[in-house]
């Protein structure tokens, strides 16, 4: 997987958020979005769009390189978006527009 040209993903890291450093920080119940994302990835793999093994290998590789500063639980979402960008399923501009729309919904209250 390509590591360059993914500013839209790297810019999502909140300056206050950083990678977990201790086991207690890593321990905990997954958030609902994590289960939904995993189910989406399973469907993409089942349909042949995004192989689970390749995605997990990419998560290991990219999670320890360009996404190393991100919280561990966010990496699977980042790598999935990264893979979809690589596959041309979505462009950086489209992803940015969708992320902006979601943020706007959250700030409206």
Can you put this structure into words, describing what you see?
Helices cover 61% and strands 0% of the residues. With 109 residues, the protein is mostly helical. The protein has a domain of 58 residues. The N and C termini lie far apart (37 Å).
What is shown here, in short?
With 109 residues, the chain is mostly helical. The chain contains six helices and no strands.
Essential attributes:
109 residues; mainly alpha; 6 helices; Nitrile hydratase subunit beta
- The outline comes out as globular
- By DSSP, the count of extended strands is 0
Q: Roughly how many Å apart are the termini?
A: 37 Å
Q: How does the major sheet shape up? A: none
Average pLDDT reading: 83
What class do helices, strands and sheet pairing give?
Answer: mainly alpha
> What is the share of helical residues?
55-70%
What is the count of DSSP helices, taking H or I runs of 4+ residues? 6
The succession of helices and strands, N to C, reads: HHHHHH
Multimerization state: single chain
Question: What is the radius of gyration computed over CA atoms, rounded to a whole number of angstroms?
Answer: 14 Å
Strand content: under 5%
Poorly predicted parts: none
Organism: Rhodococcus spelaei
Protein name: Nitrile hydratase subunit beta
InterPro entries: CN_hydtase_beta-like_N (IPR049054), CN_hydtase_beta_C (IPR042262), Elect_transpt_acc-like_dom_sf (IPR008990)
């Amino acid at each position: 997987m390509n590591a360059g040209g993914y500013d839209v993903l790297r810019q999502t890291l909140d300056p206050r958020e950083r990678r977990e450093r201790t086991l207690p920080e890593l321990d905990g119940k997954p958030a609902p979005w994590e289960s939904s994302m995993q189910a989406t990835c399973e469907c993409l793999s089942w349909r042949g769009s995004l192989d689970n093994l390749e995605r997990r290998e990419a998560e290991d590789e990219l999670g320890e390189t360009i996404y190393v500063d991100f919280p561990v639980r966010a990496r699977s979402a980042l790598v999935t978006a990264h893979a979809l960008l690589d596959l041309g399923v979505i462009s950086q501009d489209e992803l940015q527009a969708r992320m902006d729309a979601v943020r706007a919904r959250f700030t409206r209250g």
